[in-house]
Design goal:
Layout lengths: L2 H17 L4 H7 L5 E4 L34 H13 L5 E6 L21 H9 L4 E4 L19 H25 L3 E5 L4 E2 L6 H16 L8 E6 L10 E2 L3 H11 L2 E5 L9 H8 L6 E5 L1 E3 L2 E4 L5 H12 L6 E5 L8 H20 L3 H9 L3 H11 L4 H11 L7 H12 L5
Helix pairs in contact: 1-13, 3-10, 5-6, 8-9, 9-10, 11-12
The protein binds L-rhamnitol and zinc ion (ZN).
Length: 421
């Protein structure tokens, strides 16, 4: 697309939105606050680099597909991430999992990891002026094979995982300290059972005990922000997940931690967007794991759909952007992985932009007067407005490919780099 055309379309769009009382210049400025934390695990299907050729194994999450080009080394992963970053407008962070450390070809077990294994990543992020987020990895490990980690009744297993998570929080703190922006540490465990258990209470009591031990160590909030992530069910944990939403909501409220809302982890008709205005009354900050649930899978590439939109709208409407950390969480091995990142991240950014283009005051006025017909008409009318012109302009101003141009960039990278792996 030509520069002048993008500019011209933007000016027309600006006028149309101004007629509705929306200042697009302000929206473009507001978009600077939308910082997306890119999950590192789409590059290699959640394999990690603990050992060569690591595959995702155990723990209720699974990547399907064998599209060529999977990152097999940290160098390849970094090259892919750089490509992704070059195609995204706005600012990003990088969200690492513990299995992506640099272990120098040695097997360093999870209860032995140290800051030095992640120093390369910290340096990498500093060079790119990015913040880092971090996750303990309590799956794909022999001690996770029987389905229980922090809630295990086996003290040896439980202690191992407590030690792992403790170390991860320390590593995340160091990331936050060195990079000058707090690192969000997210805790998710796969614990659950395939068939109906009879002793849920002890399992949950044990998980609580483990969390208490883990969070007994305090770190300054300016370096570390703790979040805990629930799930409804997973592969092999169809009947019960120990870390359910109720469990973590209670824990977070009582212990002042953040909560992670992964929109693939709820009943299919439950709306995560609806939860935001409730949770933000009791919890300081949220972490989002944006994804697209499709039937039994909770991790398809994020797309610009109603579910995503409601999440963005509810955050913008509650004026709560500064209290929400936005992360992505999906892994699809059946398509170009670099492309998967760009689609998902751009969809999330677009959703926030769309949400900001809402004449909220007018809508609230209708609502308060019971004018629900006018409210619905206006919401419908907004769908016909040229937000695409604003999106293109935003990409152009950020010096990244506009419109379909990113597709050819990715295809070129596929031919020149990914296909040669
Ligand atoms: C799993 C959780 C978790 C993982 C990542 C890899 O169901 O969503 O967030 O996807 O930690
Ligand atoms: Zn998640």
């Amino acid at each position: 697309m030509k520069k002048e055309e993008i500019e011209k379309s933007y000016q027309l769009a600006k006028k149309q939105y101004a007629e509705l009382g929306i200042d697009t210049t302000k929206v473009l400025k507001e978009m600077e606050k939308v910082v997306i934390s890119l999950h590192c695990w789409q590059t290699d299907d959640v394999g990690g680099f603990e050992k060569p050729g690591a595959e995702l194994g155990g723990g209720g999450i699974q990547a399907t597909g064998n599209y060529p080009g999977k990152a097999k080394t940290i160098a390849q992963m970094r090259a892919d991430l750089d490509k992704v970053l070059s195609l995204l407008p706005g600012k990003q962070r990088l969200n690492l999992h513990a299995i992506y450390g640099e272990f120098g070809g040695k097997l360093v077990d999870r209860d032995k990891i140290e800051v030095k294994h992640y120093q390369g990543w910290i340096n990498w992020a500093r060079k790119r002026k990015m913040g880092l987020d971090f996750n303990c990895t309590c799956f794909s490990h022999p001690l996770a094979d029987d389905g229980f980690t922090l809630s295990s009744k086996n003290p040896k297993i439980r202690k191992f995982w407590v030690e792992h998570v403790k170390r991860c929080r320390l590593i995340a703190t160091e990331m936050g300290k060195q990079l000058g922006t707090p690192s969000v540490h997210n805790l998710w465990i796969p614990d659950g059972s395939k068939d109906t258990p009879v002793d849920r209470f002890t399992l949950r009591k044990t998980l609580k005990k483990s969390l208490d031990e883990i969070f007994a160590v305090k770190y300054p909030k300016k370096y570390l922000k703790d979040s805990i992530e629930s799930k409804l069910f997973g592969i092999g944990s169809e009947s019960m997940v120990v870390g359910s939403h109720d469990f973590y909501m209670g824990y977070a409220v009582k212990n002042n931690t953040m909560i992670t809302l992964d929109n693939g982890h709820f009943h299919p008709t439950e709306q995560v967007g609806d939860k935001i205005s409730s949770i933000l009354l009791y919890i300081d900050e949220l972490l989002l794991h944006l994804t697209r649930g499709v039937r039994w899978d909770s991790d398809h590439v994020v797309a610009f759909n109603d579910e995503l939109l409601l999440i963005a709208q509810e955050i913008v409407r509650a004026k709560a952007l500064s209290r929400v950390n936005i992360g992505l969480d999906y892994f699809d091995a059946s398509l170009n992985r670099v492309g998967a990142y760009v689609i998902g991240c751009r969809a999330a950014q677009m959703a926030f932009m769309y949400a900001m283009l809402e004449p909220w005051d007018t809508l609230v006025r209708f609502e308060e007067k019971g004018r629900t017909f006018e409210r619905l008409s206006l919401l419908e009318l907004l769908k016909t407005k040229p937000y695409g012109a604003l999106w293109d302009y935003y990409c152009m101003k950020n010096n990244v490919p506009v419109g379909a141009d990113y597709i050819s960039e990715i295809l070129k990278y596929e031919k020149e780099v990914l296909d040669k792996r």
